[in-house]
Amino acid sequence: MGPLELADFERAARGRLPAELWDFVQGGSGAERTLAANRDAYARHRLRPRTMVDVSATDQGLTLLGSPLSTPVGIAPMAYHRLFHPEGEVATARAAGRAGALMVAGIFASRTLESIAEAATGPLWLQLYWLRHRDALAAVVERAEAAGYRALVLTVDAPRIGRRLRDARNGFAIPAHVRAVNLDPALMAASHRADEGSSGLADHAREQFDPTLTWSDLAWLRERSSLPIVLKGILTAEDARLAAEHGVDAVVVSNHGGRQLDGAPASLDALPEVAAAVPPSLPVLLDGGVRTGTDVALAVALGARAVLIGRPVLWGLAVDGEHGVARVLDLLKAELDDTLALLGRPRLTDLDRTVVDG
Hints:
This is Alpha-hydroxy acid oxidase. Residues 1-358 form the FMN hydroxy acid dehydrogenase domain. Pfam families: FMN_dh (PF01070). Its cofactor is FMN. With 358 residues, the protein is α/β, with parallel strands linked by helices. The protein has a single domain (6-212, 224-346), classed as TIM Barrel. Helix content is 42%, strand content 11%. The protein has helices spanning 6-16, 19-26, 33-43, 89-99, 113-119, 134-147, 165-170, 185-188, 200-208, 218-224, 237-245, 267-277, 293-301, 311-343; strands at residues 62-64, 67-69, 73-75, 103-105, 124-128, 152-155, 229-234, 250-253, 284-287, 306-309. The strands form two sheets. The chain has an eight-stranded parallel β-sheet. Helix 11 links the parallel strand 7 (229-234) and strand 8. It is globular.
């Protein structure tokens, strides 16, 4: 029998991956309180089903920044997919396209931006970190726009990398055969070695991430691309309002999968505050802790236009490449269909705050 829920992929992936790579995927920062909170937040909510509604057909489609999507479930930006399968991000892009889902490729992708775009049949966005080397950042942005990417997602919660103790204890570094191929190797050298008590990723971030990023820097990015700008890592109404004031096109409520500030709120808990602080026309997305179609429905009801999933994609990739990722997305789509029908809200647009108890 094949996987029936995402937890089946989680168990299978754990059996296939080396311990240090499993810790890299699963771990959070500090005592991992925020990592746990991301899942716990969903369990605190109850749904209010309505009956005697025609649910013979359901519709979870939407349009996001001008792109039609078959599902509100997309793929969050993650680095180095080739750690989990030789085809890496190309396999992930194919699976996303099959599902009619958004994919956000990472600036530290292990396949070229162009090869990912060639494999994709659905919309692609590109995630960015604010690098000290502006010429390298500008070059990646230019290539992404030329290759057909449809938005830039700037991660704003990582002026430095959180204290990821599992990686530090393991001395985790990216193996030499897997590279962030869209950047000069000289910029990535630190990620392939680890100092004692640290990790290659933390050492690399200290060298390459620019901690001086402020709201005024968005003008620099906007001058270099006509693509919509999405900010990822928003957790407060204050920052949500500033994002809207500075003309961003969407925000992602995210605590980086519990991998940055330990003690930050669960993404789901921060979502209503952020959604209430921006104009209805400004899309709010969410990542962090989504594991079922019911989780997706809850997030949409609380204000998200769409959700992004991270770790489950890597589980699927490790288990069965493109087909594994496609199955992960198909499971979530099927569960969401069931949830819409059983809630008595057959269309994604029917989900609002009245769906949630309390």
